[in-house]
Amino acid sequence: MAQEFSEQGAAYDGSKAGGGFMNAAAAVFGAATNAANMASAKTAAGNLVDSAKNGGFTVSKDSANELIDTMSKFVTEIRDMEPALAAFDHQPALGGHPYGQLVAQHMHEGANGPQSARAVLKQLETILEMSIEALQRASDQYEETEANTVDALTKTSRSI
């Protein structure tokens, strides 16, 4: 799945984002597809949002918009999968005998449990949305800092 996301990301932004971002994205998606690492990835995304809120980093609008666009496309693809994943909302009908019921229950739990692909996709969607929020905040702060710097330089040049 990580390779697929990486390839899709390259298709969206291959020439714009460059290899560095795509390598980072592949690493993130590789980590995200491992259910054991999802909590860590979500914490990291939360820290990124907190850092952006507190001015911990800034990024230009152009750079942020490229990343936001790519992440938004992934979020859209995840959301577009929802109708197909609805097939897992109900246990399959495998008969009324105990073995069929046990297998149906196991299949349903596997499709909807905390380590299922469905759960990982929802967590990945949340992580991407948090990352988008952080980039939006950081780019807004970048513009504000840039405007303040220009203003300060203009005032300084007038007083000289």
Précis, in short:
This protein has 160 residues and is mainly alpha-helical. The chain is 82% helix and 0% strand.
Structure, described:
The chain contains 6 helices and no strands. It has 160 residues and is an all-alpha fold. α1 (2-32) crosses α3 and α3 (61-80) packs antiparallel against α6. It is rod-shaped.
- Spell out the helices and strands N to C: HHHHHH
Strand content: under 5%
Helix content: over 70%
The general outline is rod-shaped
Residue-averaged pLDDT: 77
Distance between the termini: 60 Å
Secondary-structure content class: mainly alpha
* E-strand count: 0
The count of helical stretches stands at 6
**Cα radius of gyration in angstroms:** 22 Å
Q: List the uncertain runs.
A: 1-24
Major beta sheet summary: none
Layout of secondary structure:
Layout: H1 2-32, H2 35-53, H3 61-80, H4 82-85, H5 98-112, H6 117-159
Helix pairs in contact: 1-3, 2-6, 3-6
